[in-house]
Design brief:
Layout (H helix, E strand, L loop, with lengths): L6 H8 L4 H7 L4 H7 L2 H11 L8 H4 L4 H12 L10 E7 L9 E2 L14 E7 L2 E6 L4 E5 L7 E7 L4 E6 L3 E5 L8 E4 L4 E9 L2 E8 L3 E6 L4 E7 L7 E4 L5 E5 L8 E4 H5 L9 E3 L5 E6 L6 E8 L4 E14 L2 E14 L9 E3 L4 E5 L3 E6 L4 E6 L5 E6 L3 E6 L4 E6 L6 E7 L10 E7 L3 E7 L6 E7 L4
Helix pairs in contact: 4-6
């Protein structure tokens, strides 16, 4: 005999489910199917997973329901896990004069269900100009005029097809990568150390850290200065934003300087806050930090104490509270552990959406949960890991011989599933170095630099409509 629960408490129960569980609930009967397909539930899941869903309509997304969009967008994100090596084509794009190319995607995520969408990258192609490239065709699509001063840093905001540069005289320029002249310019008082463009709930912003320890936030598209804050007495050398841009992590790699986390809204809406809202993370010698994907308030830090031969990981949750009309933030300790020295010394690391830490130690990958429970080892024996790239779905490992391996996180467990290996298509020169790896839904790009020949960008592009 079927038991019919009232729709209101049933909707409340469904609101706690993830997408996989909602899809299962929809198979029970017609009533459950109707409730589990509710736009209210699926929009909430979309907003939690993708920031831009807060600011768009279904008409702009091109779907009739939020459930349809969630399924379609998730299908798109997992395209590479359905691929095989033969589904990729290989392209090379030179970076003129041997300058580091600073490549950044300026296109959207890429592949769509009808096969449309092309990956486009923006990069420094010489000391004093930037260009955009359709990497699927391997053709130049736009180039800026020659600049009088060399470009030092480049970042992009793919949501708006905008690039931001800083030159060696600390001049910031905003480009739409279509016109010959910059949309806006501004200047810094001290040389720029870090540059990042982000899309926040208050709009698009440019974040800059300088060598004097200042954090600047400029508004896009006019580069109006929103706020300037003295964070450290010396240079900032780490700047990471949480997945939905609620928090900013700032660090100076120094044994006597502790990392700080700021509440983004307190820096953007200065008239609403008497002072920036921040907390200090009590964790010295922090080398790297990684926000847990799709868990907005959780961050994991890694420290390396070389004299003691200890690598330590620690995880905090940020807790925002309002006390007597004043907003405060406090870090809450979640877990910590040390990696045994006989397992190697981690260099690169990242965290999955299920609180799994993956780190590289020379020629192996190690997986732990955030409490230090050992989960998995993947050995490569003769190959040495150069880079580790991660997002909520994939882990890409780049090796010293130019090859790479693509892994996907298992949806229902804490393991990595190997997808395929992509070999280097050319013999890499001696003393060459792959200094950057990036990925979108349909491509993987890397930059190789060497002293003997100009740098070049190596791209693998997924061509099949999977």
């Amino acid at each position: 005999m079927e038991i019919h629960l009232p729709s209101v408490p049933l909707m409340k129960i469904f609101s706690y489910l993830d997408a996989y569980s909602l899809l299962q609930a929809a198979q029970v009967n017609k009533d459950w199917n109707e409730l589990a397909s509710s736009d209210v539930l699926w929009r909430r899941l979309c907003q939690k997973r993708w920031l831009f869903c807060d600011m768009v309509t279904l008409q702009l997304l091109g779907t009739e329901t939020w459930k349809e969009f969630f399924v379609s967008r998730t299908w798109q994100e997992h395209a590479k896990s359905r691929a095989i090596r033969e589904d990729f084509i290989y392209k090379e794009i030179p970076a003129e004069y041997g300058v580091r190319a600073h490549p950044c995607y300026i296109s959207g995520r890429g592949l769509t269900r009808n096969g449309q969408g092309r990956p486009v990258v923006c990069m420094v192609t010489s000391v004093n100009r930037i260009s955009t490239w359709d990497i699927q065709e391997g053709v130049l699509t736009w180039v800026s005029p020659v600049q009088q001063v060399g470009i030092k840093l480049l970042t992009t905001l793919p949501e708006m097809h905008i690039a931001v540069t800083v030159d060696i005289q600390s001049t910031i320029k905003l480009w739409d990568c279509q016109n010959s002249e910059a949309l806006a310019t501004s200047n810094l008082e001290s040389p720029c150390k870090l540059l990042k463009a982000v899309f926040t709930k208050d709009g698009p912003m440019v974040l800059i850290g300088d060598i004097s320890g200042n954090l600047y936030i400029f508004r896009i598209p006019d580069l109006h200065l929103i706020s300037k804050l003295k964070v450290f007495q010396c240079s900032i050398n780490q700047l990471n934003c949480s997945p939905q841009k609620k928090w900013i992590f700032l660090n100076r790699k120094h044994p006597h300087i502790l990392p700080k986390v700021f509440y983004m809204s307190s820096l953007l809406r200065t008239s609403e806050f008497s002072a920036p809202v921040s907390t200090i993370l009590k964790f010295s010698l922090c080398q790297r930090a990684f926000w847990t994907p799709r868990m907005e308030d959780r961050i994991t830090l890694m420290s390396i104490r070389r004299t003691q031969k200890i690598t330590k990981f620690i995880t905090f949750d940020m807790k925002l509270k309002e006390i007597q009309n004043k907003m405060t933030v406090k870090e809450q300790f979640v877990a910590s552990f040390s990696v045994p020295d006989d397992m190697g010394r981690p260099k690169w690391f990242g965290v999955s959406g299920k609180d799994v830490i993956v780190c590289s130690t020379g020629s192996s990958l190690l997986l732990f949960n955030i409490k230090g429970v050992y989960l998995q080892t993947i050995m490569y024996y003769t190959d040495w890991i150069l880079r580790l790239w991660m997002d909520p779905i994939y882990v890409i490992v780049t090796f010293n011989n130019g090859s790479l391996v693509v892994y996907a996180w298992e949806e229902r467990c804490q393991q990595l599933n190997g997808c395929y290996q992509l070999q280097s298509r050319r013999r890499l020169p001696q003393q060459s170095f792959i200094n950057k790896t990036l990925c979108d839904d349909m491509s993987i790009i890397r930059v190789m630099t060497t002293h003997s020949i100009p740098s070049f960008l190596m791209a693998y592009i997924l061509t099949s409509d999977l």
